[in-house]
Amino acid sequence: MNTIRILPENVASQIAAGEVVDRPASVVRELIDNSIDAAAERIHIRIENGGKRLIRVSDTGVGMSRDDLLLCIERHATSKIETSSDLFAIKSLGFRGEAIPSIASVSRLQITSRPRDRIEGYRLRISAGKLTAIEETGAPSGTVVEVRDLFFNMPARKKFLRVSKTETNHIVDIVSRTVLPYPTIHFKLEDSGKTILNFPACDRVISRLHALMGGKVAEAMLTAEETVQGISLRMFLAPPDFSRTRGNRMFFYVNGRNIRDRLVTRAVMEGYGQRLMKGHYPQAVLFLDLDPSQVDVNVHPAKQEVRFHNSRNVFRMISATIEQVLSRSVHPFLPSGRHADSGAFSPEPPAVFQSVVSEPPPDSRPLPGQTAATGTWTIQTLEPIRNEPSQQKAGWEIPEVIGQLGNTYILCQGENGLLMVDQHAAHERIIYEELKKGMNSSKMEIQNLLFPYTLELSVKEARIALEKEPYLSRTGITLEHFGGNTFLLRSHPALLKNTHWEVFFSELLEKLAETPTGEESLIDSLLIIMACHSAVRAGDPMTREEMTRLIEQLEQTDLPSNCPHGRPVFRHISYREIEKMFKRVV
Length: 586
Known about the structure:
The chain is α+β, with helices and mostly antiparallel strands and about 575 residues long. The chain is about 30% helix and about 25% strand.
């Protein structure tokens, strides 16, 4: 007796349907794609019970004849492609000929359609994949697809559907993600007769953004267009201040197809970089248009993932363009109407390498088995890394420091209004960039300790310290294993002054254990923690000269808007906003 058998047709159809249709939202997506491919000017979606009871999609597209109606329910019957080579030149959203047969096999389906050049229309009914009727009928031009009782013949699949509200939310998300590339199409979504989404036809994407993301976000969006090596990129980027804790406001499109692609997501996140707080995601819309032969859309059952022929070029283009756009956005050190220009100044030469011997810190302890040393030693006084303010960047204005609020915020006034600067975040940014420049140029200022500082670590911390020692040494930290969980700190970057070493290394080693393996990410984590522990703290009083010096040094950094953790460094209040507060203007 054979152990391998051919599955019955209905079972095979249900298996195939499971790859295409997993919930009501996927039905809506497939039907909307068909309507767009049919050149519809209006698409109306109506659902009941979260789409479990009814999904009705009507459009004003080209419609189908009787023969096409009968063919559309056959698996792998499509008007989009003819040969295998067409798979690499796909310009439509649908192309496999699987959607309608898959939906028909797990529901009660009715399709009514009339071509624009015909007087008569036809209605087709099919239940669980079996044709039950086809008849002539009066109908407006276009197509109406009604899907009732989804998964009625698959109770095991049906029980995995969520409550109606959840399924409705998934449908809302699908429709919202579809409307952006097609502003000239009117989309409307109703739930049990109540309109929940309505996007009238318009001539610009920005109008859709207003409706979809809100006027405040849409008006703040930065735009850019770029074409490189046949790849056209158009983007709308919300400033980092509009970031969210979820990534559901990132919309990516390739040749009009909405995708959720890891490569594009990573490129966007890299472009925003340290402008985002950890765990936050930007609001961004990207449209990529390229030759269909340069992108494979046939790699995912739901066609939500793609594979680029030259993914490296795509990644670099996206991340570099975003970085450029954000760098040119309005800057607090610029007069009104000016924008930052990365080419307007040249980088400052790195500091000269210095190796110094210092007095042991007040809380240092002698080595195990030794007594404290006595006598005299030579102390070389360290000058600040920037003894004189660097040359001001072309066209930039340094705002005037007028005071300190709560020993935490530096208050400045300039041509554009009031600038409030978080002194700790600002100093973090300055120190982080100094450390990074020094390390990259191998000219970091290192402080060698005359008497090593003894560290008693936990078992876990000791293991991490031994494992990450090469990365520590790259940043100027020399830890010598003395035995057991005891380590000797012999040198550290000169910027790390007045540091509580136990707290510093506890946080540092814990962070290194959490950081994904990769030299750059590990080194960056080290530098960020060093900067945090070295920076002036909230609550520390500062003189006017110190505050002015801090602002001058912040102005010279590459990314003054955010600290290395992604927190904002400053907030700006315009004179007009202040006047409105006091009712001087309406």
